[in-house]
Amino acid sequence: MRDVLVYSESYKVWSPGVEYAARLATAFDAHLTGIWICPSPSAAIPAFEAPELLALLFETTRQLEDEAFAAGPPFVDYVHKLGVHKTSWQVAEGYVPDTLALASRYHDLLVIDCSNDTPWGSLSAVGNIVMGSGIPSLVVPPGQLNLPALDTVAIAWNGSAEALHAVHAALPLLARALRVVILHGEQQQPISMLSWRPPFDLASYLLRHGIAAESKRLNDGNRDIGATLLAAAGHAGATLLVMGAYGHTRFSEWVLGGATRSVLEQATIPVLMLH
Q1: What predicted TM-score, i.e. pTM, was given to this entire model?
Q2: How far apart are CA 203 and CA 265, in angstroms?
Q3: Dist CA 184 CA 72 (whole Å)
Q4: Which residues of 202-229 are buried (b: 16+ CB within 10 A; e: fewer)?
Q5: What are the backbone angles phi and psi of residue 142, rounded to the nearest 5°?
Q6: Residue 121 contacts residue 115 (beta carbons within 8 Å)
Q7: How far apart are CA 90 and CA 26, in angstroms?
Q8: Which residue, among 30, 243, 261, 22, has the nearest Cα to 144 in the 3D structure?
Q9: Nearest to 229 by CA among 158, 172, 160
Q10: 4 near 111, Cβ under 8 Å?
Q11: Average per-residue pLDDT in the chain?
C-alpha cells in the first residue's frame, strides 16, 4: 500500500478520515493523495431547458473548483504535520462514486468517512463508493481519532470469495499487526469445494505469509451477524476489522447486503472492505 487516496467532502475542514489516512500513510511511508470532487453542473440541468441557469451553475462550479484547488497547500501542510512527506491534492468534477472509481485505478487504497452528517457519508453513499471503487476501501466511522496502531486486526471470515478478496487486500496491514484474530462465521464456500479434504484453512494460508492468526468461532444463533462481528472484534480488542463487502445492484445503484450495512451502522473502529 504505497499509494493511498482519501476522499474529503470539504476543502476547509479536514475530517477524521483524512487524519486517519495521513497517519496510515505515515506508517507505510506511502504517498497520500487528497481528493475533492465538485458535482458536474451539466448533470443538474439540461442545457436546452434553462441555459441561463446552467451558465450560472458553470460559473459557480468554476469558483468552487478554484477555491478547492487553492486548498492544496493547507492540505499538504496539515498532513505534513502528521508525518506524511509524499503527498498531493486533487480537484475533480463529476458524480462522486464514478469519479472515485476512476481515481482509484491509480491508487492502492481508498479511505472514506462514514457519517450521516455529510451527503456522501451515508450508508447508501458509502455502499456506492465501496462497491464501485474496485480497490480496498477503508471506512472510518464518525469521531474516529485513534491512531492506526494495528495492535489487533480482526477478520470476518465465512469462506466466501468476497471475504477472501478482502483478506488478500489486507495482507500488508495484517503483516504489520501485532495480533490477528479470525472470526469464523457460517461458511459460504463454493459447492465444488465442500468435499475437499482437508478444507481450505485461512490460518494456514496466513501462516505461509508469515502471519500467525488465532481463530474464534462466532455464535451463529444471533441473526444480526453485523452486531455479532463487532462484539467479537471488540472483545478481541481489535482496532481494525477486515471483511468482504456484500451487496447487489438495483437500478444501477449499489445496495449493501445486511451484514455489511449492519457493520457500518454500528462500527466504532475502521473497517477495511472489498467486494
Answers
A1: 0.89
A2: 28
A3: 44
A4: bbeebeeeebebeeeebeeeeeebbebb
A5: -60, 140
A6: yes
A7: 19
A8: 22
A9: 158
A10: yes
A11: 87
The torsion angles phi and psi of 75, rounded to 5 degrees, stand at: -65, -45
Q: From CA 269, how far away is CA 9, in angstroms rounded?
A: 20
pLDDT tens for 101-126 read: 999 999 999 999 999 888 899 888 99
* Amino acid type, 101: A
Instruction: Enumerate the β-bridge partners of residue 5.
Output: 33, 110
CA–chain centroid gap for 205, Å, is 24
Over the chain, what HEC string results? CCEEEEECCCCCCCCHHHHHHHHHHHHHCCEEEEEEEECCHHHCCCCCCCHHHHHHHHHHHHHHHHHHHHCHHHHHHHHHHCCCCCEEEEEEECCHHHHHHHHHCCCCEEEEECCCCCHHHCHHHHHHHHHHHCCCEEEECCCCCCCCCCCEEEEEECCCHHHHHHHHHHHHHHHHCCEEEEEECCCCCCHHHCCCCCCCCHHHHHHCCCCCEEEEECCCCCCCHHHHHHHHHHHCCCCEEEEECCEEEECCEEEECHHHHHHHHHCCCCEEEEC
Write out pLDDT tens, residues 232-247: 999 999 999 999 987 6
Rounded (5°) CA angle 164-174-166: 25
pLDDT 10s digits, 128-158: 899 889 999 999 998 766 667 789 999 999 8
Is 119 in contact with 9 (CB distance < 8 Å)? yes
pLDDT in the model for residue 183: 95
Any idea which residue has 499509494 for its cell?
Answer: 3
Whether 270 and 20 have beta carbons less than 8 Å apart is answered as yes
